[in-house]
Amino acid sequence: MSNDVLLTPEQIAAEERRWLFESPIAELAEVKGVTIDEAVKMRTDAVLQEAVIPIEVSVRPIEPQGKLIGFASVNFGGVVVDDFKVVNGQNGIFLGAPSKPDPTSRTGYRATVRINDRATQERLNAAGVEAYHSAVEKLIARAEAVRPTPIREQMDKAGKEAAQKNAARSAPAKGKEGRDGR
């Protein structure tokens, strides 16, 4: 009878991750049957593959033109790509890839940037939605700050100020005494 324990696929994956990311390089090399240099390369490649690239989006809202509601610049970990389109589609706001005219394509345009990873596209869209709403809020706040007060409110305020000044002024003298000061 054997004392071998059957491991679940999750346990095997956890052990592989431990060797790859946590164990000493010498242990990784021994377990995988490779040289120290190859083990270092394995760990470096794994760390780079696991790294999450920061995505920052800045949006310039425009007056809507059909579904197009703005343009965005996207910073992918230090690489900036301009001219993403902010589109309000059937399933909400998303960022469309920059494109250029191409008469040989079916649509007349060809994308100049492709994002093949769905998770990255979802992160990009989420950052784009947040940046769009933030940019619109800033525009609204700026418009409110420079918007003149409506004329009715201006007239009411001027009337109250005039009433206060008139109330503080002494009443004109009546009769001959008032005319003598001319």
Task: Give an account of the 3D structure.
The chain is α+β, with helices and mostly antiparallel strands and 182 residues long. The protein folds into 2 domains: 9-50, no CATH class; 55-145, Stage V sporulation protein G (Arylsulfatase, C-terminal domain, 2-Layer Sandwich). The chain is 49% helix and 23% strand. It has 6 helices and 6 strands, in the order αααββββββααα. It has helices at residues 9-22, 25-32, 36-50, 118-146, 151-168, 176-180; strands at residues 55-65, 68-76, 79-89, 92-96, 99-101, 109-111. The protein has a 4-stranded antiparallel β-sheet with strand order 1-2-3-4, covered by helices on one side. Strands 5-6 form a two-stranded antiparallel ribbon. It is elongated and about 125 Å long. The relative contact order is 0.08. Pfam families: SpoVG (PF04026). Residues 153-163 have a biased composition (Basic and acidic residues). This is SpoVG. Residues 146-182 are annotated as: Disordered.
Structure described in brief:
The chain has 6 helices and 6 strands.
The helix tally amounts to 6
Low-confidence segments, given as residue ranges, are none
Return the CATH topology of the largest domain. Arylsulfatase, C-terminal domain
Number of strand elements: 6
Mean pLDDT: 87
Strand order of the largest sheet: 1-2-3-4
The level of helicity is: 40-55%
How much of the sequence is in beta strands? 15-25%
Q: From N to C, what is the helix and strand string? A: HHHEEEEEEHHH
* Sheet of most strands: 4 strands, antiparallel
Protein structure class: alpha+beta
Going by CATH, the architecture of the largest domain would be: 2-Layer Sandwich
Shape field: elongated
| CATH evolutionary superfamily of the largest domain | Stage V sporulation protein G
Q: Given this structure, which CATH class of the largest domain is correct?
A: Alpha Beta
What distance lies between the first and last C-alpha atoms, to the nearest angstrom?
A: 129 Å
C-alpha-based Rg, rounded:
35 Å
Number of domains: 2
